[in-house]
Amino acid sequence: MQIYNTLTRQKQEFKPLNPPNVGLYVCGPTVYGDAHLGHARPAITFDILYRYLMHLGYKVRYVRNITDVGHLEHDADSGEDKIAKKARLEQLEPMEVVQYYTNRYHHDMELLGVLPPSIEPHASGHIIEQIDYIQKILDAGFAYVSEGSVYFDVRKYNEVYHYGRLSGRNIDDLYETTRDLDGQSEKRFPLDFALWKKASPQHIMHWHSPWSEGFPGWHLECSAMGTKYLGEQFDIHGGGMDLMFPHHECEIAQSCAALGHDTVRYWMHNNMITINGKKMGKSYNNFITLEQFFAGDHPLLSKPFSPMTIRLFILMAHYRSTVDFSSSALEAAEKGLTRLQETYARLQKLQPSKSSTMDISNLRERCEQAMADDLNTPLVVSELYDSARVINTIADGKAAISVADLEELKSVWKLFAEDLLGLRLADSATDDSHQQAYHKAVDMLLDMRLEAKQRKDWTTSDLIRNKLTELGFVIKDTKDGYEWSL
Ligand code: ZN
């Protein structure tokens, strides 16, 4: 299998350190709010990688962390802790915020068909490991203590290693563009980043350490937990491209400083999602949570979109390309999903003949090659669409398929569509068509009520309204007709 390694900037043959074992680490969410489309993409991308590696016969230990402390608001390194801030605003215990959003994240991931990782460590559960890691960096001379906080010495590190290797930057250029923020005076150099921060008196999340009562810096948790669960050297580290700098750059610096060598052998980054061509962000008012997608509850959405539609939409682009979201792009993905579901249902009912008039012999190989080529999921999807045409021709009686070929076709669809792309084609086909039928039935009743009103047949119109209300429907008359919800 070929993987594009962000560090070497080329596609490389994937060779695990200790086959058949593979260590995979992916940066998980900071749990202070609902998951959005930007969370769905890395989760789905690395879910595909996880599934494919297992398909290749590897025994994968997949670690995806939960950030629940130390991720600060500005540049990850200054300002209030994101979780502490949410806890203060909502008057909750910080761990209540963490638990609440972790539960919701898990629920969303399950709906999206994302398999749970093998280990899901929390940063707050690994303070001791992080303190040990800081001590190693201090002992190696690449960090210093200042006013009870510990900072990574970027200039000193850069004399031995190259800071900026992953993101293709160098410290002179970075220095030029650094803003001098308040509270950076403790640092010897503006690019130095916090390994440990002394807690201010009002800071509610803090632990004992040799340096102060405080908390770890955000970049540290992934170095400490990656090493703890996957070793001082492991195979793959993944995450969104937005994490490449400073987060992953700092992880590399931390591990080289503490251990004297790189920890990660292959770095993989998924590209970002834009919304109508714009970067996604709270300030743009284009920040759509997954729950809002599923409910259709956002001004930019034309209707609700099912989790499987979102999944297919993301897989229809290669993970290293940007994906531009729009309601019309999602509607296209929804049509594509329906086509796959209908084809899958037809495939199960196909009757074999004595011999085949269609050639399906290369389908498995072509799908396999696409996956092995740095997870080319859009190519697998288009192979499935092509074979859908074959299946429909056979179903229409215009071609024949042998018993063996039919078994092969079923097995390829099960493997690539369901097991590897993780699309739930069988259940959601019936779920979605039931949903559609139910919506149409309610609309039909309310159309009848509208007609009754127009001919002033109040008995019928009230009867329909009352019966639906009894069943729990909320009906609202609007100037164009009606709106309803359950
Ligand atoms: Zn991380």
Description:
- The protein is α/β, with parallel strands linked by helices.
- It has 3 domains: 2-270, Rossmann fold, CATH 3.40.50; 278-420, Isoleucyl-tRNA Synthetase, Domain 1, CATH 1.10.730; 433-485, no CATH class.
- Helix content is 47%, strand content 15%.
- It is built from 16 helices and 17 strands.
- It has a 4-stranded parallel beta sheet with strand order 4-3-11-12, sandwiched between helices. A 4-stranded antiparallel beta sheet has the order 7-8-9-10.
- Strand 3 (21-26), helix 1 and strand 4 form a beta-alpha-beta unit.
- Helix 1 (37-55) crosses helix 10, helix 4 (127-139) packs across helix 7 (218-230) and helix 12 (363-372) runs antiparallel to helix 13 (377-395).
- The longest helix has 29 residues, at 426-454.
- The model has no long low-confidence stretch (mean pLDDT 92).
- Bound molecules: zinc ion.
- The site of zinc ion (ZN) has 3 residues, from loops.
What is the beta-strand fraction?
Answer: 15-25%
Question: Which homologous superfamily in CATH is the superfamily of the largest domain?
Answer: HUPs
What's the pLDDT, averaged over the residues?
92
Kindly identify the CATH topology of the largest domain.
Answer: Rossmann fold
What are the low-pLDDT stretches, counting only 5+ consecutive residues below 50? none
| Helical fraction | 40-55%
Q: If classified by CATH, what would the architecture of the largest domain be?
A: 3-Layer(aba) Sandwich
Class of secondary structure makeup:
alpha/beta
Q: Can you summarize the main beta sheet?
A: 4 strands, parallel
Question: What's the shape?
Answer: globular
Q: What's the level 1 CATH class of the largest domain? A: Alpha Beta
Strand order of the largest sheet: 4-3-11-12
Bound small molecules, by name, code or SMILES, are:
zinc ion
How many runs of DSSP E, i.e. beta strands? 17
Radius of gyration in whole Å, from Cα? 27 Å
The domain tally reads: 3
Number of helices, counting only DSSP H or I runs of 4 residues or more: 16
Instruction: Kindly report how far apart the N and C termini lie.
Output: 49 Å
